[in-house]
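Case study 2.
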Amino acid sequence: MVKLAKLKSMMYWVIGLSVILILLIAFVYSPYYAKSGLWLLDRFVSQEVDPVAAESQKNGQLSAENELEPGSKEWVARQAYLAEVNQSLDQNDASKFLQLQQRYNLLLKMIAEQKQDELNYQLQIFSDNTLKSNIELDVNADQNYNSALSDTKSALNNSNIDSNNALDIEALFEDVMSDENQSLFEQYRQFLTDESTKIQLENDTTQASQVQAPFIYQRPAHQPHAIVILGGGLTSGEKKGEIVVNAYTKKRLEQAVEVYQSHNLPIVLSGVEAPYMQKWLEQHQIHAQFLENRSMNTCENTRFSSLLLQKQGGAPTVFLVTDAYHMARAKRLFAINGIATIPVIAPLPNMLTEWQPSKQNLMHSRRATYEILATMRDVWFGESNCREIP
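Prediction:
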């Protein structure tokens, strides 16, 4: 009797555990497991922006011009443009932004044409001198060299500057350049704001909104400054050896295109997938201004993208494009790096069913489980697999 009782008890346990296991499997294959995981992530993952890290992004003057030579005409033009934009912001006058952007583009075009004319003139002089030097004797070239050397020495002697004192010469050079730049600075500001000057500007607002200005004008901190798209992986293309974005990344890009068409903000592509994401966008007549192509995981996505945005002038708030399960962890890590995010949810390749268990729900369940475990790891142990710099 004792053995029979134990056998019955064991059978009940087996049946009970089997029922629990069947219910758990059904729950995982149902849409409610993924929805529950998503609810937990959205409710309990902190997204408070680190105030110290946010200081590095607070300027909010995102610019694609990171290699302008200080003192060049393009550099002075940008300073004039920034001054006018900031003045408009101080006066709460946003109506001038589009006109300033168009005038700035026109100013850059005029500077480029002027530089090309100067280059053509120098090439013409060089060509004439080369032709002349081919006719003259070598001895005349030596005499010209000696004469030029004598003139240089004479100029130094008459300048009342000690030729051995490099600091004095450098200081004089900086003063002269400073005066010249200041004059250019005022001329460019007048050009940007002089409404009496008849300048042919773009009248079509649709086309004007698509102007690709090198400088993205400053915006209030709470408004998005850029669209950040996190890579979701790569796959093999139809051709042999071809690499293309996978279904996850493609969905994120498609969602980002919709945001770009309505907001026309600069795009940041993050992840080793970035070059392939750029190729996909260019096939849709869109060009991303910033590529961060070194990150290998979400922590590096957020850290390296934040460093890139900081270097380019700062972006305190951005649109963040990724899938719903990845969003909470990505937002938290961006907040740690000083950037507030506005979520743009990209769908997964397979949609959840409405209520019934289905194999296609398993993808969502796996994503939810992974993100919950990854977030718990990050909170409790830190991001141990995250490089400090690219």
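The radius of gyration is 31 Å.
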